Amino acid sequence: MRSTGPARAILHVDMDAFYASIEQRDDPTLKGKPVIVGGTAGRGVVAAASYEVRKFGVHSAMPMSTALRLCPHAVCITPRMQHYQSISAQIFSIFREFTPVVEGLSLDEAFLDVTASQALHGDAVHIARAIKARIWQATHLTASVGVAHNKLVAKIASDLNKPDGLTVVTPETTRAILDPLSVRRLPGLGRKTGARVEELGIHTFAELRRAPDAVLWPVFGRYTHRVRERASGIDDRPVVADLEEKSISAEDTFSTDIADPARLQSELARLADLACARLRRKALVAGCVTVKIRRHDFTTFTRQRRISPPTNDTRALGSVARELLALWLAGNPGVRIRLLGVGVTHLSDADQLDLFRSGPPRAASALDGTLDAIRQKFGARALTRAGNLEDLAD
Amino acid sequence: MKLTATREDILSPLQSVIGVVERRQTMPVLANVLLSARDERLSITGTDLEVELMATSTVSVQSGGDITVPGRKLLDIFKALPEKTSVTLSTEGDRVSLRAGRSRFTLSSLSATEFPLVDEINAQQTLTVAQGEFRRLIDKTHFSMAQQDVRYYLNGMLLETEGKSLRAVATDGHRLALCETELAERAKSPQQVIVPRKGVLELQRILGTEGNLELAVGTNHVRAQVGNVRFTSKLIDGRFPEYGRVIPTNPSKVLEADRDALRHALQRTAILSNEKYRGIRLMLRPDLLTLQAHNPEQEEAEDQIEVSYKGDELEVGFNVNYLLEALAAIDSEKVEIGLTDANSSCLIRTPGATAARYVVMPMRL
User: Fold this and answer.
1) Which residues form the domain of B253?
2) Nearest alpha-carbon partner for B326 in B315, B316, B338, B314
3) Domains of chain A in sequence order
4) Contacts of A350 in chain B (CB under 8 A)
């Protein structure tokens, strides 16, 4: 069933050549030069390419060796992830000044649902301008923003006028703007599928939209209807806010999607263990557990449950997470999962003493304490619970 | 099944049982209520598998039978009908039809055989206690029950018989409430059962103040008839902690205060306590109690009241909500608080009394 609520206002904010722009900003001698950020070792790939180097056909995820063949005079820089992460956090906190509904896609890209923010901050276009200005003011970096009524169109829009762009697409102009675009711009359409579609003589959104079922079915199967909707700019996926800021979480995108419940549970146990160890390191206890599940088609679900009394015990928090995932899996059997996350919220450090236990709750259980100590000394993978054994098999 | 009744004959029992009928159920039949009609009587039953409520009323039964229908929808329909309307309810195939004046409704139904009823509870003994007294036990302790605690045996209330006394104990691990009353006659044998939280709250809702309550206690269930409502609850299968061990027997620092003066001072100070942890600092000096709170915004509150106290100075932190709830349950003008040190529990009660006792663990501030 399609939601029929009031029109939504969705922003897709995409930082322009994020890592490369940061390097150029930090080292003025790199300004205007072709800069590639990425691994320089044998199988290194391009993590980011400045606009100067893109002209040579270099793009991210390309093997570094290929990139250097295309542009031999490019300056190669090893990524400084921690630095990028802290700037990203700064930018995301700007997003949250305008709306709590922020769904991060990566360090440099996010969807914002500003539908409810318009009363306070002015219309969506106004908010988009304000966000661009705030980012520039705070970081001296530029972002391209797409403003639309859904995620799909917003994402396509942000890519239309890069860098430093602001593209607004309304429901009325959607078709006119989308129709002439290359199908390659349809998010989620990989390179291989894109090529297959083009072999069918379908090159634009309009052609994809009008293509008969008989033509599309062999390529897209039961997703045919979905693909045609997307080509028409129809998308009612909600913006799923990231786990609260006041949370500690661990999440992981799998290298290949996982459908096996046992493997998923083992991945989840590993993430719960990680989140709990972080909790203990900060001497906090949590009163709520959230499990985040992203399906292969990027639809994202969260399930949460309160836990009382608040704790940082891996077994207690992990078993709640396990139950939440099991419940979700029971309702969605066989679904391929792309990402799992475990978050803990309702954090507190207040030491309420317990009638039946000695000592405050911050004292982690003896087992957790020992595990933490061993990992501190010998590394994160030195010791694990049998339930997480999957990660030893990697 | 076919019966005729006024709106009120059905609405009133329906309202009595609807509390246990949840909207979203994993088992569809649990969203339904069971209607059983025979001998000019209609009984309506709702259950969540833990607590079962059955309410009866007198109606005109043309043909007896049993059927289940969606509980919330039935309630909404009866609430929306004009007062005193005459209603005819009958089964038609696998549907239930309802006629009232010119209104007509057809509801889906599920077979009565699918409805999980608790038949016999195999009572080991039946306790007789004044209804008002039993209600007092619940009123004075229920707020200390845990909620969704992993220590599942705390998510309910301990009922304990010993000779002629009936004792209710509730604790969430941070504080504990205990209240005792006299049974009409000696209990056959000492017994300890834990009634789940939901059962306690439903029972509290239906209990009146007049007459006696007969509480049948089995190994897995308790059951009681209150007016036209029969209450049945599962028992929590677990061991309640040895609560006697955590009640201070001889606290070294005992103060006496005016209950209302203390409550008001706590309420005032609490305004600027941390909204989440509700921590408040008590500083005790001979005949003077100072209360202090501050929050993450660095706002501060301080208050003082005169108390009667002769011991050493002491500084101790508490969750102010726990203190306020205990004080609210005490109905005497004066209150006695027994303390030991900043890491030990305190005992709150009417000076010298033992029938109702409250224990609160401190917070480290």
Assistant:
1) 247-360
2) B338
3) 18-81 (3.40.1170.60), 179-231 (1.10.150.20), 247-392 (3.30.1490.100)
4) 274, 276-277, 279, 363-364
- Whether complex ipTM tops 0.90: no
Strands (E), chain A: 10-15, 35-38, 46-49, 75-77, 102-106, 109-113, 143-148, 166-168, 248-258, 285-295, 300-311, 337-348, 351-352
To the nearest whole Å, the CA of B364 is away from the closest chain A CA by 5
Against a cut of 0.80, is the pTM above it? no
Q: Which of A23, A52, A97, A109 is catalytic?
A: A109
Which pLDDT score is estimated for A356? 86
Determine whether the interchain pair A353/B343 forms a contact, defined as Cβ–Cβ distance below 8 Å.
Answer: yes
Query: What are the per-10-residue average pLDDT scores of chain A (394 residues)?
Result: 66 95 93 88 80 90 87 90 86 89 89 91 94 95 96 95 94 94 88 87 93 88 88 89 69 88 94 89 84 88 85 88 93 90 82 72 59 66 58 39
What DSSP designation does B144 have? G
Q: Which residues of B66-89 are buried (b: 16+ CB within 10 A; e: fewer)?
A: bbbbbbeebbebbeebeeeeebeb
Residues B94 and B155 placed together within one structural domain of the fold: no
Neighbour count for residue A195 (Cβ, 10 Å): 11
Angle at A361 between CA A357 and CA A362, to 5 degrees: 145
Of B174, B363, B364, Cβ closest to residue A355: B174
Q: Is residue B365 part of a domain?
A: no
Answer whether B102's CB lies under 8 Å from B21's CB. no
Which two tokens mark B310? Answer: 């002769």
- Locate the chain B residue with the closest alpha carbon to A315: B150
Beta bridge partners of B91: B96
Q: Which residues contact A113 (CB under 8 A, 6 or more apart)?
A: A8, A9, A10, A99, A101, A238, A239
Q: Does A360 touch chain B (CB under 8 A)?
A: yes
- Rounded to the nearest 10 degrees, the angle between the axes of helix A314-331 and helix A261-281 is 150
Q: How many CB pairs under 8 A join A and B?
A: 55
Q: Which residues contact B191 (CB under 8 A, 6 or more apart)?
A: B124, B125, B160, B161, B217
A306: chain B residues, CB-CB within 8 Å: 148
- Name B72's Cβ contacts closer than 8 Å, sequence gap at least 6: B18, B21, B23, B31
Shortest CA gap B311–chain A (Å): 24
How confident is the model at residue A240, as a pLDDT?
79
Task: List C-alpha distances in Å: A367 to A277, A359, A383.
Answer: 12, 16, 12
In DSSP terms, which residues pair with B65 in a beta bridge? B37
Q: What DSSP designation does A7 have?
A: P
pLDDT of residue A363: 45
**Residues A316, B150: C-beta atoms closer than 8 Å:** yes
Find the helix packing angle between B131-139 and B197-206, rounded to 10°: 130
- CA-to-CA distance for B59 and B79, rounded, in angstroms? 18
Q: Can you give the pLDDT at residue B160?
A: 95
At A363, give phi and psi (nearest 5°).
Answer: -65, 110
Residue type, B40: E
pLDDT digit string, tens, across residues B99-129: 999 999 999 999 999 999 998 898 989 999 9
Q: Are residues B260 and B194 in the same domain?
A: no
Helices (H), ranges, chain B: 7-17, 71-80, 131-139, 197-206, 259-270, 320-329
Domain CATH for B217: 3.10.150.10
